[in-house]
Amino acid sequence: MAEVGARKKLRQRRGADHARDVILDAAASVFAQKGYYGTTMEDVAVASGYSPAAIYKYFKNKDDLFSRLWNTMADRLQEIFDESTRLPMPFAMRLRWMVTRASQLLETSPNLLVAFIAQRPYAARARSNLEKQALRHYRSHQARIIELMESGIAEGVLREGGAADYALLLIGLLYEFAHRWVSEDGQIDVRQSVDRIIELFLRGAGHGS
Amino acid sequence: MAEVGARKKLRQRRGADHARDVILDAAASVFAQKGYYGTTMEDVAVASGYSPAAIYKYFKNKDDLFSRLWNTMADRLQEIFDESTRLPMPFAMRLRWMVTRASQLLETSPNLLVAFIAQRPYAARARSNLEKQALRHYRSHQARIIELMESGIAEGVLREGGAADYALLLIGLLYEFAHRWVSEDGQIDVRQSVDRIIELFLRGAGHGS
Amino acid sequence: MAEVGARKKLRQRRGADHARDVILDAAASVFAQKGYYGTTMEDVAVASGYSPAAIYKYFKNKDDLFSRLWNTMADRLQEIFDESTRLPMPFAMRLRWMVTRASQLLETSPNLLVAFIAQRPYAARARSNLEKQALRHYRSHQARIIELMESGIAEGVLREGGAADYALLLIGLLYEFAHRWVSEDGQIDVRQSVDRIIELFLRGAGHGS
Amino acid sequence: MAEVGARKKLRQRRGADHARDVILDAAASVFAQKGYYGTTMEDVAVASGYSPAAIYKYFKNKDDLFSRLWNTMADRLQEIFDESTRLPMPFAMRLRWMVTRASQLLETSPNLLVAFIAQRPYAARARSNLEKQALRHYRSHQARIIELMESGIAEGVLREGGAADYALLLIGLLYEFAHRWVSEDGQIDVRQSVDRIIELFLRGAGHGS
DNA sequence: AATGAATGAGTGTTCATTCAT
DNA sequence: AATGAATGAACACTCATTCAT
User: Fold this and answer.
1) Which CATH architecture does the domain made up of B1-59 adopt?
2) Strand F closer than 7 A to residue D128 Cβ
């Protein structure tokens, strides 16, 4: 947004923490739009109002910058998934709680979440360290969700067999919903969608009878 | 004379077509492994056995090469989705046919499919022409699947309301399955999974009662 | 010498070997003038008439380019030192042969030799791999020269004791001569100097009596 | 009042001088270890305990900092060489005095000396101002040493002819000894080596007979 | 007296792309 | 039909240097 030439004006002493945050925000936005490889440090610099050199004062390198963002989101999700298996509530409520919390991330940190999601296809055939780290996180998420499903089966809310498949179903629904939410520019009502997602998850599309 | 010339031209044509195919195959494999940005024309050249310069005889540039691949997959999928609404069969069979055909792509062209999937997150906030084109394709796929869902509703197999949501559910399942298939290196049995996907789609995970 | 703008004209197809040699020559000259750190790849590019990118087609990186040059000279010297201990001649002749050959390098490859010499101080407290490799070479040279000295002692031409010191004396003379030769721009007659060096080495500056 | 002000100024002066010295010491150590180009102002800052910005309060820039160090050593050497021609003693004693004093610098300021030596190869083909200045110093040193040699000839201690060559011999010995001393990490006994250097200088390596 | 915060100007290196042969 | 040879335009990253506080 800001012109490169206008950079000088920003010589404000606002403190390192502030700079860190500003840069992270800007980076999240740019990474979400163009992906890791499509984003240049100059992009981040322009978006943040700092110079590329300044960014290196706060982050070791591009990888570091990206993976800090990525890990933030991975950790937030992990926390949600972890808690959803720990909460002392019946399965149905825990499920709803989890879906709600996860969906809210779309509203609070859409950029971060998109950057997170966009990285996933590359993780599948992990090559770089970044990708290997990502793969580990994705697997860890999956594991917790499977656990959640198992407790649902134990409680008799879910049918027997295939906890892994139920996890696949739920993750698919969540990712797909995120995709749609983004591609419709956040126009979809999240709260309402949570109900729909849960219903689809539990009853599927079939007529049931 | 003319005969010979024609024959030669034919041979050349064949040669040219052959080269084209070889390059496309090689490119699909490399793009799938390293993604668009991670792949260099040198990579494609080495994988295809041609020189980088030769590739430019057959494709305008890297974008062109990639988007031809991408479109190939997009078209194949489109065809499947189109046909699944046209086939003179009951919904249930058309659904199974569609899921089967789509899943088979994993076995016949996994590389192409991965490359196709990896592109999706960026399409959501389309910037470049490549991405805009992609977005159009994804939307077109979605439209057809919604149509399919509507016929399912009309036939009374699917519950009333929310064809778009059912599409979201099915697409989510398909993508997620593809993800898992790739990250487990194709070890999953596709045919068996088709049943599971359809069941999950129709009945969800819930106990039903 | 050549302007950057003039680069385009050089688009000649002269073969890879030719390019290699041209670049090596240019690099030797620039490294000799400005040292490893003071030399940029752009410097080498301009001096060679190629673009920086072209240089990377022939050499992996700056280190590679430099160490190839450096090793060439190190190996030539090693060869001279090695042979000076092997030749079936009396010590005096072998010594003369060695000093002659070494001195000639000044005339045939002054740039290379200067680049080689300039690197030595850094090798002393070797940090980088380049420097460690250099240190090994310098030590290996020294070892051979000490051997040569020992044979001189054995033949009774050199006084007893202190082969290592004699090596120090000779190496000091050679390096110092090279220094002077370079700083007087090659105006000194090499052949004549050989006699002088050998005399100084054998008799020192003292009056003797 | 004026008194107090003056005292404060003095203290500040002292503080400033102290800082200057601390920085110079730190810089000498770092330059000696990594060379001019290999050393960053950040390195100097860390080694000195000050911030990079602080260094600029005491020195105009990196070049200034380095050349002050360099000149310090150049001047100390110059002083030694100067005095060695002036001292009212016979040549042999003046020579010993000079070699002793010069060698002691290795023990008192090894870092400075290494930095000084490392600069020499580039001075030969002086380009920058730094190098031209250096060249002037080296030449001036040489001139004095030649003078010393001439007095040795005049006294009949050195053979006729070739004062310049004798200077080359002595300088070569001194530099080479410094090299060895550094590369053996200061393990060599300096006092003992002085005798050896003088003997080699006067008698060479030859058997004499 | 000292520094935290910031940047301009490079530096090595990569890569898509071109073109004469 | 194919490529060897070459480069312009970027890109990640570094570093000497400045300046308000």
Assistant:
1) Orthogonal Bundle (1.10)
2) no
Per CA to C1' distance, which residue is closest to F5?
Answer: C13
**Is pLDDT at D42 greater than 70 in this prediction?**
yes
Is A153 at the interface with chain B, CB within 8 A?
no
User: Which one is the CATH code of C63-203: 1.10.730.10, 1.10.10.10, 2.60.40.770, 1.10.357.10?
Assistant: 1.10.357.10
| Superfamily the domain B61-209 falls into | Tetracycline Repressor, domain 2 (1.10.357.10)
Q: What is the distance in angstroms measured between the alpha-carbon CA of B50 and the sugar C1' of F3?
A: 9
For CATH 1.10.357.10, list the domain ranges present in chain A: 63-203
Question: What fold does the segment set A5-59 form as a domain?
Answer: Arc Repressor Mutant, subunit A (1.10.10)
Domain range C4-59, CATH class: mainly alpha
Instruction: For residue range D169-199, list pLDDT tens digits in order.
Output: 999 999 999 999 988 888 999 999 999 999 9
* Separation CA D23–CA D93 (nearest Å): 37
Bases in strand F with any atom closer than 7 Å to a protein CB: 1-21
Q: Where in chain D is the domain with CATH 1.10.357.10?
A: 61-209
Q: Is the minimum distance from the CB of B41 to strand E below 7 Å?
A: yes
Q: Which amino acid, residue D54?
A: A
Question: CA at A94, C1' at E8: how many angstroms apart?
Answer: 55
**pLDDT 10s digits, B21-55:** 999 999 999 988 888 888 999 999 999 999 999 99
Please tell me the distance in Å from A16's CA to the nearest CA on chain B.
32
Cross-chain residue pair D35–C38, CB shorter than 8 Å: no
- Measure CA to C1' and name the residue nearest E11: C40
14-73 of D, contacting C, C-beta below 8 A: 32-38
